[in-house]
Design brief:
The protein folds into two domains: 117 residues, Conserved hypothetical protein from pyrococcus furiosus pfu- 392566-001, ParB domain (Alpha-Beta Complex); 107 residues, 2-Layer Sandwich (Conserved hypothetical protein from pyrococcus furiosus pfu- 392566-001, domain 2), CATH 3.30.1760. Helix content is 31%, strand content 24%. Strands 9-11-10-13-8-12 form a six-stranded antiparallel β-sheet, sandwiched between helices. A five-stranded mixed β-sheet has the order 1-6-4-5-2. It has a two-stranded antiparallel ribbon with strand order 3-15. The chain has 272 residues and is of the alpha+beta class.
Length: 272
């Protein structure tokens, strides 16, 4: 029995749950055209008749930009995912904290309030906490919005986009400010996001309310990489059924050729 499920999907039925970087999409589109190969399939889960991308929005968007009708994706069942989805922390560096606060508080149309955590009332139904900021002095601030919950994702995306335009953000799992200050030059602050529920993420994707890129962190067991799907297969006029038959046959052959290797130990990937 296969430890994973790959399938060919209609790209029009595949939805992102987070925003993507147009510059990265453009670069990947060029790279895909040159290589004519989809190497790592995006991860998706089915939800309300659509497929929500958990990881790989840039790849899917790059193929859409090339007018590719189909994509190979790794399908994971929702019940195999954690109910609560952890998030990355963002390290801010090379700008001062005042500039960080200014970029967040002045987002277009936003009504965000930054306050020291000690001054935040325990019961603040009128305000929704978007994230917290910890500066180099270990002072904790909360960033809250007075918008309705339906606008929360927009405020969050606008806030993250505002500070990522000013400096490169480093994603990390570390929350120790002292260690981060030692390892990151010109450290300014650490941003921590609250976790999201899987249903919140999926419903938001279906309704087009995207989260900012680089916040959610999906832990996928048996993630497939290095599959190398020729793009001419995806661009061909064959039906999805025919393409899926080809894909299943290809994976079966790779199993028989001992070309499918299952690594259970953690790995470290150093990208170009």
């Amino acid at each position: 029995m296969k430890a994973f499920e790959l399938c060919v999907l209609d790209l029009n039925q595949v939805l992102p749950h987070e925003h993507y970087d147009n510059n990265r999409v453009a670069r990947l589109s060029d790279s895909l055209q040159k290589s004519n190969m989809l190497r790592n399939p995006p991860i998706v889960t089915d939800w309300k008749g659509k497929y929500v991308i958990l990881d790989g929005a840039t790849r899917a968007t790059a193929l859409k930009k090339l007018d590719c009708p189909h994509i190979v994706a790794q399908l994971v069942k929702q019940e195999s995912l954690e109910t609560t989805i952890p998030t990355w922390n963002h390290v801010i560096h090379n700008i001062d904290v005042d500039s960080l606060f200014d970029s967040i508080e002045n987002i277009p149309g936003g009504k965000l309030r930054i306050s020291p955590a000690d001054n935040v009332e325990p019961n603040t139904n009128a305000h929704k906490t978007l994230f917290t900021i910890i500066d180099s002095e270990k002072t904790i601030y909360t960033v809250q919005t007075s918008q309705k919950s339906s606008s929360k994702h927009l405020d969050l995306s606008n806030a993250v986009n505002a500070y990522t335009r000013r400096t490169n953000v480093i994603r990390t799992l570390d929350s120790n400010v002292e260690i981060l200050q030692k390892n990151i030059k010109n450290f300014s602050a650490l941003i921590e996001f609250p976790p999201f529920t899987i249903q919140e993420i999926l419903d938001s994707a279906i309704n087009g309310k995207l989260l900012p890129a680089g916040v959610t962190r999906f832990l996928i067991t048996n993630r497939v990489i290095g599959i190398n799907i020729p793009l001419n297969i995806l661009f061909s006029s064959k039906s999805i059924t025919q393409k899926n038959k080809w894909l299943n046959k290809t994976i079966t052959e790779k199993y028989h050729q001992n070309k499918v290797r299952h690594y259970t130990e953690p790995v470290i990937v150093v990208e170009d």
